Amino acid sequence: MEILRLAKASEFYNIATKDLTPILQTKLIPHIKKLSASNRTSYYIPTLFVDYAKKVLNFSSISTAKGTLEDFKNKNGTKIITVSNLKGGVGKTSVASNLAYTLSVLNKRVLLVDMDSQANTSRYLANKYFTGNSIKNIFDTLMRKEKIDKEFVKQYISTLEFENSSLDLLPSELALGRVVEFSRAVFTMPHKKLNDILKHVKDDYDFIIIDTPPSTGLSLHMAIYASDMMSIVTDAEDFSVNGLKELSSEIEEIEEETDRSISVDSIFINKVKNSKIHEVYIEAIAKLAVEQNIENVYTIADSTRVKEAQNLHIPMLEYKRELDKNLVMSTSIMEYAVEKALQG
Ligand SMILES: Nc1ncnc2c1ncn2[C@@H]1O[C@H](COP(=O)(O)OP(=O)(O)OP(=O)(O)O)[C@@H](O)[C@H]1O
Ligand SMILES: [Mg+2]
Questions:
Q1: Ion ligand 2: residue ranges with CB closer than 5 A
Q2: Confidence band (pLDDT; 50, 70, 90) for 324?
Q3: Residues 308 and 263 grouped into a single domain
Q4: Which domain covers residue 45, as residue numbers?
């Protein structure tokens, strides 16, 4: 995956920098902005979006000048984000997987961790079962009180190659839930165990995205303990607003129990339809977000394309590249990913 460098935009696009900058600032085209030591601003656009940029900017041709980013690692270390909600079927797995992929398109080194024994994340992007070869094996080993190291953890990580980028996956399997719950009987502080696993490989990544099951259990406690921040995915239905309140108090309890604080920095309201009733719930959720100091609220439209991409086991961004059709789920996720990438 290459990154198109817009250091001198006019050279590449035949457009005055002053005209291009506002367009980039609207985030209409996903990009990364970097300040050089001499305070000059450089813009980078993933090549994936070159066609998109051409359309938005109405260009007939685009320069082939390209630059790869020699060092685009996070400056502030690895960021670990848990994607969660106690409610099932709202889109946690869809958002976690596509967020992980989108960050990888932005040239970040990403590990996607599946902490749900349904293993939907593993199957969505890898299209296979990992029975006997998943994070569950690592927990098994820890429970036998055997020491683990980086090489041991790495043997359970697979690199998934896509058309435009690659990312790493630490997959799950059905038996994970049982093993995780059983670990309560073995460890005095079981909630620390995912952190104990991830610390061995953390330095290899800019972002670690953790998908969680739709329930409050040890898997969620472990994920929260290991994470810096949380992203909530919800739908715009009757029980969602109350569900979010329940989740907040659950998070508070987990924070107390695990002696770790986590900031919820975003809510994705998923499967939104163009209806009055959805408008009402979106407003209620947005109000709740303000009350709880959650900065980023995004909506994602309900679209069969999300399901279609999952059936084909490809990320949304790689499914139907055309501007209007492609960006159903991707725009909000891209917006969030770009923000995180810039903070990194
Ligand atoms: N924006 C969307 N539009 C249409 N369908 C969607 C959308 N987002 C997710 N879906 C579909 O909804 C179903 C549930 O999504 P997903 O598996 O991501 O939810 P989940 O919260 O992870 O579920 P679980 O609680 O079981 O882990 C899937 O079939 C998925 O394809
Ligand atoms: Mg899921």
A1: 92-93, 120
A2: very low
A3: yes
A4: 3-57
